[in-house]
Amino acid sequence: MNPPITTWQRLALKALIILAIALLGFALFVLWKARLHEARAVASHPPEGQFVTVDGHRVHVVVRGDGPDLVLIHGSSGNTRDFTFALMDRLATRYRVFVVDRPGLGYTERINRTGATITQQADILSRAVAELGAAQPIVLGHSYGGAVALAWAVNFPDRLSGLVPLAAASNIWETGLSRYYWATSHPVIGPLVIPVLTAFVSDDYVEQAISAIFAPQSAPEGYGAFVGAGLTLRRDSLRANALQRKNLLGEITALYPRYGQISVPTEIVHGDDDATVPHWNHADRLATQIPGAVYTSMPGVGHMPHHVDPDGVIAAIDRVAARAGLR
């Protein structure tokens, strides 16, 4: 015969039931609020361009202008709007510009659940723009997108005519993942913390993050409202971005010994006050690794040269186009 339940056991059981109900209620509230924020982000910042389907995956591409083909690839946590804010329209006066969302970011679908590699991204993006007629474009990649552009040049040399690594992550580093990327990429912690971030990250936090990316300069007026940070804060995008960032060091470790194979005209552009992707570890080394590469160092410029000194970036693109015989 079982012993009778004591008063303390009854109280403990009631407390556990109340706690379980409270946790369930909080979880449901978080999921509701996350879905609400995602819906608002999509409504306020809809797709700017068109969709191309490659191997069953939809790729979002914005196309403007006439002239030699030019592809722009955004960095971590970004989307097409980083380039369509200002730079694209300036370039579209003399190039046919293709701005792409990388897999999992903006409106391009994820291509797997483990974090698309830079080579996989280069493959799907190159085939997407080829579907639109850009078989051998000039390719500019910013930050993480610079690593994708380098993978494009190394692995698919017949699919581009010139290369512009812009504040590009290109060489190995020793620092580990930040706590943010460690948590959001973790197989257990990530799926728990990401919905909370989607639900509760404040506008103030987003503004601080944008300010840190632009430092020591300031973001252009209206940039934060235009770029649509809420798109990156969607659960799928947070997860895809985190996994890509987690895998990046290993992918660059395998890629950088092959930079000597790059034969297209290359113009490297990097700010010498970039605290996000330090020039001394990336651009300075990359300039010695790609045969014939020309390196433009921008004094006092941080991680966003295409906003701080667009004339210098456009000049580098023009030089590549001339060297490639496109102008």
Name the descriptors:
single chain, 327 residues, alpha/beta, Rossmann fold, 6-stranded mixed sheet, 14 helices, 8 strands, elongated
Protein architecture, described:
This protein has 327 residues and is an alpha/beta fold. It has a domain at 50-172 and 252-323: Alpha/Beta hydrolase fold, catalytic domain (Rossmann fold). Helices cover 49% and strands 13% of the residues. It is built from 14 helices and 8 strands. The chain has helices at residues 7-44, 81-84, 87-91, 118-131, 144-155, 179-185, 189-200, 203-214, 223-227, 229-232, 235-255, 283-289, 305-308, 310-323, and strands at 50-54, 57-64, 69-73, 96-100, 138-142, 162-166, 267-271, 294-298. Strands 1-2-4-3-5-6 form a 6-stranded mixed β-sheet, with helices on both faces. A two-stranded parallel ribbon has the order 7-8. The longest helix has 38 residues, at 7-44. It is elongated. The N and C termini lie far apart (93 Å). The model has no long low-confidence stretch (mean pLDDT 95).
Chart the SSEs and their pairings.
Elements: H1 7-44, E1 50-54, E2 57-64, E3 69-73, H2 81-84, H3 87-91, E4 96-100, H4 118-131, E5 138-142, H5 144-155, E6 162-166, H6 179-185, H7 189-200, H8 203-214, H9 223-227, H10 229-232, H11 235-255, E7 267-271, H12 283-289, E8 294-298, H13 305-308, H14 310-323
Parallel strand pairs: 3-4, 3-5, 5-6, 7-8
Antiparallel strand pairs: 1-2, 2-4
Summarize it:
This protein is of the alpha/beta class. The chain has helices at residues 7-44, 81-84, 87-91, 118-131, 144-155, 179-185, 189-200, 203-214, 223-227, 229-232, 235-255, 283-289, 305-308, 310-323; strands spanning 50-54, 57-64, 69-73, 96-100, 138-142, 162-166, 267-271, 294-298.
